[in-house]
Amino acid sequence: MKIAEIADKLGLEVVNEGQWEREAKCCYASDMLSDVLANGGEGCLWITRQSHPNIVAVAAIRGMAGIIITGGKQINPDTIEKAGQEQVMIFSTPKQTCELAGKLYMLLSNEMERG
Amino acid sequence: MMPEKPRIEGCFAFNGGDFADAGQAAIELKARLAALGVPAQTVRRAAVSAFEAEMNVIIHARAGSMYYVIRGGELLITVTDTGPGIADVELAMQEGYSTAPKWARDVGWGSGMGLPNIKNNSDALKIDSIVGEGTTLLITIKLGAEGQNENC
Ligand SMILES: Nc1ncnc2c1ncn2[C@@H]1O[C@H](COP(=O)(O)OP(=O)(O)OP(=O)(O)O)[C@@H](O)[C@H]1O
Ligand SMILES: [Mg+2]
């Protein structure tokens, strides 16, 4: 499913613009950065409560489709600036990780079933 | 006439103060390998290894440097620091073992997965460490499909 459609359906707030047309086929939820470096899939959306600038490097290095920061956290301006440089898409949501992950998983798996 | 192969190498200094900007070396390495036509999977393994090694310098050792070069179809990444050293390398290699300070754990580091990640993503990893003097990692990654060295 295209990122633009996912963002719309989940009511995500845009923190840093990026490739709206990119397809996301999977998601990964984790707050440990080395865990994401090990297991975050290429082209997946990453759900996390972390908002430190290091998340941008993790997503860029791992080739992830974007980051969704949960819990309505205030996002460090350095993170937004770095995301602009690396062209990593960032969204924010007041929802907590469990709820957002459940909804995103449903969206992605429904689309898989439809083929 | 055969065109001369470009020499691919890079050198970076790291220190604790660069924490927020960490990852630049690995991102640059990733772009250069991709431009050379190295398979995406190999590019990712190299970038993850370089980034984990850099983070370990910044978090555990504070000051150090990275040098990488492509030679004989292999990418060699050397990361060396002047930090406290690692007393028990075998223990440090175990997944889940971490002495990361609170400030690093608060932003998502310290799961004790960095060194295992480097091991899993490289073809060879050599760690030399002297307590009180510092640590040097030599990471080797074969380029090309299954190490067949077709690119360089
Ligand atoms: N360059 C280094 N200098 C000193 N000690 C190190 C260095 N690199 C690793 N260590 C030691 O080895 C341990 C394990 O390292 P590893 O990278 O696997 O995990 P971590 O850095 O603690 O957490 P993570 O990498 O998951 O964020 C560290 O906690 C630290 O005690
Ligand atoms: Mg580490």
Write up this protein:
The complex is a heterodimer of chains A (115) and B (152). Chain A is built from 5 helices and 5 strands. Chain A has helices at residues 3-10, 33-39, 54-62, 77-86, 97-114; strands at 13-16, 26-29, 44-48, 66-69, 90-92. In chain A, strand 4, helix 4 (77-86) and strand 5 (90-92) form a beta-alpha-beta unit. Chain A is globular. Chain A starts with a helix and ends with a helix. Chain B is 34% helix and 26% strand. Chain B has a 5-stranded antiparallel beta sheet with strand order 1-2-3-5-4, covered by helices on one side. The radius of gyration of chain B is 16 Å and the shape is globular. The chains are: A alpha/beta (115), B alpha+beta (152). At the A-B interface, helix 2, helix 3 and helix 4 of A face helix 1, helix 2 and helix 5 of B. Adenosine-5'-triphosphate binds at residues 52, 56-57, 59-61, 81, 83-84, 86, 92, 97-100, 109-116, 135 of chain B.
Low-confidence stretches of chain A: none
Q: What's the number of helices of chain B?
A: 5
- Tell me what portion of residues of chain A adopts beta-strand conformation: 15-25%
- The CATH class of chain A: Alpha Beta
What is the oligomeric state here? heterodimer
Give the neighbour order of strands across the main sheet of chain B: 1-2-3-5-4
| Element order of chain A: H for helix, E for strand | HEEHEHEHEH
| SS-derived structural category of chain A | alpha/beta
The unique ligands bound to this protein are:
adenosine-5'-triphosphate, magnesium ion
Note the gap between the termini of chain B: 17 Å
Question: Which superfamily, in CATH terms, is the homologous superfamily of chain A?
Answer: HprK N-terminal domain-like
Characterize the main sheet of chain A. Answer: 5 strands, mixed
Largest chain interface and its two residue counts? A-B, 24 and 27 residues
What is the string of helix and strand elements of chain B?
EHHEEHHHEE
